[in-house]
Every structure is written in C-alpha cells, then in structure tokens.
Design a protein that fits this description.
Blueprint: E1 36-40, H1 47-54, E2 66-67, E3 70-71, H2 77-86, E4 87-90, H3 94-97, H4 104-114, H5 120-133, H6 150-163, E5 168-172, H7 180-197, E6 200-205, H8 208-211, E7 217-222, E8 225-231, H9 232-237, H10 242-249, H11 290-294, E9 300-301, E10 307-308, H12 313-326
Parallel strand pairs: 1-6, 1-7, 4-5, 5-6
Antiparallel strand pairs: 2-3, 7-8, 8-10, 9-10
Bound molecules: iron/sulfur cluster and magnesium ion.
C-alpha cells in the first residue's frame, strides 16, 4: 500500500484561523509513494495551507487526511510522533526557519534526539554523515546559520529534514528565495536524495519552471481549490484550464517566434476570505462567460487521469487547436 493522502472538505471550507476561511476547499488528493508531486499556483492560493494540513501542523475544521490507509486525525500521540518523523517539511526561507542561536549540529541533531534515533558518538557521526549527504562539511557542525549562504542554509534545512529518516518530504517553495543558479543545485540535491533514500516528494511552488523537470504529477490550485490535475508532461504539452494556460505563458520562452508572450494573467488574486462567486477565476479569465459568475465548475475527468474545473475547457481546447491549424 502506498502513501495515500486524501483531504476532503465539504462545502464550508475550513480552517484553523477564522481569517483564512476557504484557504483550502473541497480538496481531495492522493500522493503515490515514490513520486514527486507538485502543487502550483500564485501565492495566496492555499498551497502552503495544504502542505501544513498534510503534516497536521494545522487542523482541518472538517474532512480527513489519510496516510498509508489511515486517517491521521485518528492517530494517538505516539503514532502522531511517528508520522511527524516520517513526513518532514522544508520551508521557503531557510534563514527564518533555522534557529539563529543553535549550531548546525544542534539543528540537525534535534530530530535525531527527539525521536531517539541515535545517542552520543553515534549521533555525532550521524550528523557528520548528514552534512556530507547534503554537500556540506562535517567541520560545519559548530557554526551558526548566519555564517552560511542562502543555498547552504537550505542544505542545512534539507539535512534536518533527512535527520528524522523520513518517507515523505514536503518542500514549501524550497527554492523561491534563492538565486536561479542556486535553485538548480537544490533541485538536483532533492532529486538525488529522492533516488537514494526512496523518498516521496511534494513540491509546493508558484513557478512552473521550477517543477517542470522534477515532478511526475501536478495539482494547480487557485483560491484554495484544485482547478487542474495532470501528469506534468501533459500539463505542459496541453494545459486545459485557462489559469494553467496563463501560468504557462508567464514562463519566459527562449524562442524567436514567441518573443513577447501576451500577459494573460491580469490583476491580483482576489481575497480568499471572499472568493468570487461561480468559478473563482472568472474575474481574471479571458474566456469567462455569464454562466461562469453563476455556476461553480466541478473538477471533472478530462481523459486519462486528468481533471479540470472549467465549464468550457473542451471549447477552449478546440478553439486553440483550430487556431493552430489555421495558421500558415
Ligand atoms: Fe474561465 Fe469560465 Fe472556465 Fe472559469 S469556468 S476558467 S471563468 S471559462
Ligand atoms: Mg506559501
């Protein structure tokens, strides 16, 4: 049986804080063991909330989260500790998420101590091994986070996540605070570690370019809802939802024919506390029609394993295809 995370929230939305009503709404997804699963969307779309719910760092007001066939809401404290060890998270800003008063050794050693994985010299050896694993040096053990570059700090965050010997790592925008050249290094590191330790990865990102080559499947979120669900290859080849299409055109393409892509996505994300009626994307959608304001599109099956929530995805797709064949 694989890792199986399912979340279902009926009608009213959720959440821990009354100010984030609708942060994640009626989301249901399951993640397969050993895959890299991406959750993408602009900030404010509920991606991080979803990540924290998966780890039960916040509690859903309704619904369920299933891991390896069991509801995590039914776990006793001991089982919950085990789950927190198996599911680790890496945050966007490695500086904010690392205690500045703790040495690298203490930061990485804490989960080892907390979960009783190793003691004394064995623990010190394990910390040195983790530092090497993420491309740092055992000699870094007595240094403090501020002595490192952004990329190195993220490596420390990765080492800490690995220290608990996890099965699944959630990266919440793990590279978006880093320079582009450093981003690739961290992505490569995560991919290597995934292979080496048989990890499952969940990558939360606003930038489709980041997940393009690393993820197997993608959920595109808009205002707390999944609007498209697809394998990564199919999503890039043939995006079905207008929001996904807009996100894709925002990626700069080094192509002579496509020098200045038209910005399809205008305006800010509306407030999640009062999402637009009907289709939540209607205020920004270039294909919106009157019914879009009235009726909420459900997530429907659109071919093999794909899902899309748009009243007009078929028409939009056909129009796109005929425009393509009509051009010389
Ligand atoms: Fe656009 Fe309407 Fe589809 Fe929503 S349902 S994405 S507004 S066309
Ligand atoms: Mg976020």
């Amino acid at each position: 049986e694989g890792i199986d995370l399912v979340k279902r929230f009926g009608g009213g939305g959720l959440l821990a804080s009354p100010t984030i009503v609708h942060a994640v709404d009626s989301v249901s997804l399951s993640i397969r063991r050993g895959e890299t699963f991406a959750i993408v969307g602009e900030s404010g779309c509920g991606k991080s909330t979803l990540g924290r719910l998966l780890l039960r760092l916040i509690e859903p007001t309704a619904g369920d989260i299933r891991y390896e066939g069991r509801s995590i809401l039914s776990l006793d404290p001991k089982e919950m500790r085990q789950l927190r060890r198996e599911l680790q998270i890496i945050f966007q800003d490695p500086f904010a998420s690392l205690n500045p008063r703790m040495t690298v050794g203490d930061i990485i050693g804490e989960p080892i101590w907390l979960h009783g994985l190793a003691k004394g010299s064995e623990r010190r050896e394990r910390i040195a091994e983790l530092l090497r694993t993420v491309g740092l040096l055992p000699a870094h053990v007595d240094r403090y986070p501020h002595e490192f570059s952004g990329g190195q700090r993220q490596r420390i965050g990765v080492a800490r996540a690995l220290a608990g010997e996890p099965k699944l790592i959630i990266g919440d925008e793990p590279v978006s605070a880093l320079d582009v050249s450093i981003q690739a290094q961290i992505i490569n590191l995560l991919e290597d570690l995934k292979e080496r330790f048989g990890l499952t990865l969940v990558i939360i990102a606003h930038d489709l370019a980041v997940i393009r080559h690393m993820s197997d499947r993608v959920a595109v979120m808009y205002l707390g809802e999944i609007v498209e669900f697809s394998t990564t290859d199919e999503l890039f080849d043939n995006p079905l939802h207008p929001y996904t299409q807009a996100l894709l055109t925002a990626i700069p393409v080094p192509s002579p024919v496509n020098r200045s892509p038209k910005p399809l996505l205008q305006g800010d994300v509306p407030s999640p506390t009062a999402p637009p009626s009907g289709c939540r994307f209607h205020t920004r959608c270039p294909h919106a029609r009157p019914i879009c304001k009235e009726q909420h599109p459900s997530l429907e099956t659109a071919g093999d394993g794909r899902k899309v929530a748009c009243h007009f995805w078929r028409e939009i797709q056909n129009a796109g295809a005929s425009a393509l064949s009509a051009s010389p």
